[in-house]
Write a structure and sequence with these properties.
By secondary structure, the protein is an alpha+beta fold. The protein has 2 domains: 208 residues, PmbA/TldD superfamily (PmbA/TldD fold); 214 residues, no CATH class. The strands form 3 sheets. Strands 1, 2, 3, 4, 5, 6, 7 and 8 form an 8-stranded mixed sheet that branches.
Length: 426
């Protein structure tokens, strides 16, 4: 079907076009406790087609896209392409060009053993430190081989093959008369057994501690420590503000040579893109627009060095060798995780919701489980909320030398923000 779509696009009158062919084969496992309830294999395929039409002597470029099934007829495909060309008139942007070809097709090779990856996950789940009061209620494992082929009218023809995995787990914790559930979603390329056990062992402990919490008091301004996946939101604030799209749209004013904050008394962040991040679910040699992905320093010691992004917005910024990054690494800071856990602070490990606004840096979240540290006294707390803004907190933030990976993000294992406002639930 691919050759037919290419033939139709060449004859359609489109000024440019691109096709992404996605093929997925995978295995799925559904377990109650540790008993396999059901399992199945899957195989999916689809085509994403996008057409471009130039207007006003090439001053503007319109586009429209649609998904096509692999068994679509030639007639239906031709009709959909004609409809896309009509729709393109309604989306007119300042002109830009698609990525050019280097003249050669590229195919990323990979030997993905779905059976071995599945066994690693199932074995890791059986080694968790469960007890009579904290255990796994259920879990689901999804393991896939993704094959992504991208073609465009400039002659690019590239194929990437990479693994994508996911575990959804529900933990039960109980004591006399009470029982709660905690949920965790773990994404990766293949199975990192040690990291998975660490994540879910923590969740078992969090479930136990959640049952013996007291209400979070109104603490005013206090240092807050992040040591779980919520910390990704903090570092994603840096990453998104480096995107060409946010800069073009006026959301971010970060450009090369600019400090992320004029006054920095804490650790200075360094952010890099990575083509390969061990066990990431996005380890491809090219992006979704056919551009080569590479390692690139975006921020060095608090100073912006580069931006990244789509071909469209990168051209608007005048960037020549651009790409859409998926993997990011944030360097560690000047202190150990243990050193950052000194004094009086609130370590929050579970939120009902936590977000950092990319536009203004405001952060907020509702506390589901935290640990209030006051010298040698540690009290599990729940309820209440936190608030602040990264525009101020970035000046004094500190983060650990140790790092921790959350799929496509390698970030400091422990992050400490100074003087965050904590509103109690009393």
């Amino acid at each position: 079907m691919l050759n037919t779509i290419v033939e139709l696009l060449k004859a359609s009158g489109a000024d440019a076009w691109e096709i992404t062919e996605i093929s997925e084969r995978g295995w799925e496992f559904y377990c109650i406790r540790h008993a396999l309830d059901q399992h199945r294999a899957k195989r999916l395929e689809s085509f994403q087609v996008k057409v471009y039409k130039a207007f006003e002597d090439g001053k503007f470029l319109g586009s429209a896209s649609a998904s096509m099934a692999p068994d679509i007829s030639r007639e239906e495909a031709a009709r959909m392409i004609a409809d896309l060309l009509r729709d393109a008139v309604y989306v007119q942007n300042p002109a830009y060009t698609l990525n050019p070809s280097d003249g050669e097709a590229y195919a990323q090779s990979a030997d993905i053993d779905l059976g071995a990856i599945s066994r690693d996950f199932l074995q890791a789940m059986r080694t968790l430190p469960e007890t009579v009061t904290e255990d796994l209620n259920s879990y689901e494992i999804f393991v896939s081989e993704m094959r992504r082929r991208y073609l465009n009218s400039n002659g690019i023809d590239v194929t990437a093959v990479y693994p994508v995995s996911q575990v959804e787990a529900v933990v039960n914790a109980r004591d006399e008369g009470h029982e709660i559930e905690l949920y965790r979603l773990y994404k990766s390329g293949s199975c990192d057994s040690a990291q998975l056990r660490q994540d879910l062992s923590e969740l078992l402990r969090f479930g136990r501690d959640r049952l013996r919490t007291v209400t979070t008091p109104s603490l005013g301004q206090i240092d807050v420590v992040f040591s779980t996946d919520a910390a990704r939101e903090i570092y994603d604030w840096f990453i998104y503000r480096l995107s060409a799209a946010t800069i073009v749209r006026g959301i971010s004013d970060w450009k090369p040579g600019v400090f992320v904050s004029e006054e920095m008394r804490g650790d200075r962040v360094t952010v890099e893109t990575r083509q390969i991040l061990p066990n990431s679910s996005a380890n491809a040699a090219f992006d979704t627009e056919g551009a080569a992905v590479r390692d690139l320093t975006l921020i060095a010691d608090g100073v912006v060095r580069a931006s990244f992004g789509s071909r469209q917005y990168s051209q608007y910024l005048g960037l020549g060798d651009s790409f859409i990054a998926s993997n990011f690494a944030v360097s560690g800071g000047g202190a150990s995780a243990e050193e950052l856990r000194q004094g009086r602070f609130l370590e929050i490990v579970e939120f009902s919701d936590f977000q950092v606004n990319v536009m203004n840096g405001d952060l907020g979240g509702e506390i589901r489980l935290g640990y209030l540290h006051e010298g040698d006294k540690v009290t599990p707390v729940s309820g209440g909320s936190i608030s602040g803004t990264m525009r101020e907190l970035v000046r004094t933030m500190r983060f650990s030398r140790e790092q921790r990976q959350y799929d496509t993000r390698l970030i400091p294992a422990v992050t400490r923000l100074k003087d965050v406002t904590v509103t109690g639930a009393e």
